[in-house]
Amino acid sequence: MSLEESDDNIQNNDEQVTKNSTNTRRNSTNIISEDPVQVPIVQLIPRTHIVHSHNNGQLVVRILEELGWSKIKTGWCKSLIGILWEEFRHSVNFSLMAKLNGNKRGVCLVNHVDGMDICTKVGMLNTLRNGLGLAFPPSWFPMAYRVPADLDLLKKAATENNDSKWIYKPAASCCGRGIFLVDHTEKTWEDGIVQQYIRSPLLLHGKKFDLRMYCLICRADPLLLYYRDGYVRRCLVDYDEDSNDLFAHLTNNTVQKRAPTYKDEKEDSIWTIDQLEKYLISISLVNEGWTKEYLVPRIKSILLELFNICSSKIRPLYGTFNLLGIDLMLDSNLNLYLIEVNAGPALQTGTPVQKLIIPTVLKECIQLVVWAHEGGTFPNTEFQFLYDKTTSQNSTDDGISSSETINPLLPTIRESNSTSVSLPKLDKANSSKLNSSSSVRRSLTPIRAKTMDFPTTSPNKFTRHKSLSKKL
Fold first, then answer.
1. What is the 3-state secondary structure (H, E, C) of 11-29?
2. Which residue of 10, 115, 125, 462 could cross-link 77, Cys pair, CB 3.0 to 4.6 Å?
């Protein structure tokens, strides 16, 4: 292809980008208000993508192309990339992205946020320890120690709590690899954490389970968070506290796929959240509406406290976003615990429930991220508002949550006609006092410090940049 032909293709693509973006905004609806929330266009993002992922990258490409995005070849001008989708955070060149998104060449979206230490086991432990000090661990996080560094403390805790069980998780591992139950502390440890085991987990038909929920960092600058329900991951082997069978202890779907009965029972390994509530109602453990009235508000409360602690480490880099997998567990008393946060949650759709949920989550994620950076009408989505730094507002504020319950973990100031809930470490500026009738619209407004226009320079004048992806 000649340079002139490639220029024509880019120009034609720009025209299609504008058309697709206009149609998307025209067809989308706002689920919070009957009247669509129209936001002035902040910046038009090229509808082009590059996807590097073995985590069901085919699904990512399919969703992007269904939304009107087209693949761009490696070597094209990087200022024309709309979304760069990488499997791993370390593959992203954040420094180059800061330069590209810091000028007026356009916005490139990247599906990782720099500074997400909480997405590693050791990083989560260090973040909570440093952030909470003597208040560590919070009620929603099982006690944990770094090994081998904290081995003496671990031995002391194990001695003082003879009834406690512990589980080892290696630092550089995922998908359940390298995890084992700790039977004694006198051994040679590789780098990792040893965490107190939840001995009395809530069971489904006698089997252990956990929850895979989602938190979307729609925008890192300024920080904008949304939450969404996911699904239930269930073991295929009956739970036995004294058993060494990892198929009875590890709910990770990658682990359960290796279970002897997986082929015959895989559809029963993943449940919907509605199935979970119906089962708990059937055994008279909860009442109808438990998910909406207790589970989701409690998850949001945990996430708000977590980001209150870790947000100072998040790099406020415009154009970065992250779909996080939030893994939680319930014990037999319905106490909720955060197990870990995943920067790249599994996108495989091996069961009917995953086929129903994951493609929709991915589609809504992309639509929300584009809206947060580009503006327009708020998309149709099941994601629920969690926090917006531009207004110092969170999901417990009036006008966002139908419940009058305010997060007890955070300081609250109430006045007759206004509500202000501040997250001191998230936003050091004075909290805005928002009128409850307008709080929904304000929280939905994507704000950029300075307006940036889509480049009008002729495509053949663009400078070819060093790759945003370290793989290119």
1. HHHHHHHHHHHHHHHHHCC
2. 462
Looking only at the bridges linking them, the beta strands covering 207-220 and 192-196 are unpaired
| pLDDT: which is higher, 7 or 284 | 284
Tokens found for residue 205: 């038909």
Put simply, whether the predicted model's pTM sits higher than 0.85 gets the answer no
Nearest Cα neighbor of 232 from 203, 267, 271, 268 is: 271
Q: Which residue has tokens 């058309």?
A: 19
* Closest C-alpha to 70, from 144, 20, 145: 20
Whether the predicted pLDDT of 350 surpasses 60: yes
Beta-strand ranges (E) seen in 141-269 are 144-147, 166-170, 180-182, 192-196, 203-204, 207-220, 223-234
Element (H, E) at 57: helix 57-66
> What is the C-alpha separation between 206 and 204, in angstroms, rounded?
5
Residue 320 has pLDDT above 80, yes or no: yes
Query: CA distances (Å), 24 to each of 17, 109, 378, 445, in order?
Result: 10, 18, 10, 17
Using alpha carbons only, what angle is made at residue 351 by residues 348 and 355, rounded to the nearest 5 degrees? 65
Helices (H) and strands (E) in the chain, counts: 13, 21
Q: Do 399 and 448 meet the contact criterion of CB atoms below 8 Å apart? A: no
Task: Dig out the tokens for 412 from the structure.
Answer: 């609250």
pLDDT band at 362 (very low <50, low <70, confident <90, very high): very high
